[in-house]
Amino acid sequence: MIRLKRQGLFNIHHKTVSTPSGSTRRKPRGRMYGLLFESIQVYIKQDYGDELWATILEQAGIPQVVFQLHKTYPDEWMVNLAKAAAIVLGGEVNDVMFYFGTCFVNFFTKFNYDQILRRAGRNYRDFLIEIDNVHETMRFSYPKMQSPSFIVQSEDRNGCVLIYRSMRTGFTYYVIGQLVQCAREFFDVSVDIVVLEEITSEEGCHVTFRLNFDNRGYIPPSGRGSMTDLGLANYPEVKSSTFFK
Question: Where does the record place the Heme NO-binding domain (predicted)?
């Protein structure tokens, strides 16, 4: 058995996964652009060879296909490829989905789309806040995008809580791979991700992440930050008598 490469790239803790009472997990629905599938194909061929890629396609029940960047394909193909790769290469499906996520970010840069991400903000914090706007920008090139939603719910000097909502299920670790690789590739930041909660239903998924990283771009709310947080700890104390004599 061939072991999955690039393992150990991330540190993830999946604390809780819950599904609302009465709901059932379902396969991803909808379609996604060939850009995502092409990224997987390119890096699996690069890392493991053409023959193993053909084996993974066969295991996934997907015909030999030349993915077109602007053509859409069934969502479930991505999950099927991950399950097949886990069998063929060895490893867990979540690990493979994470790997797929990193592949997409690396492939993304080949088309200079990384410039969109770099313009989203000066640091990783700004990027996280602007993810939805990045998707809207991409919609000009990919008008049928069924993009997820990301909201920074809260933040502090050590990271943030990020809410991820999507009509798709089963892509949590794919997203984590993207988040980790974007942090590393574009902002030279190491991030530790905790899945605080994952709720799935027929409508999709709602995932709460805790991202631990050096959030140096964070500014505490006015009047609530300490002198150290505000960067004033090294200034000398000034007494009121200096101004009022």
Answer: 33-194
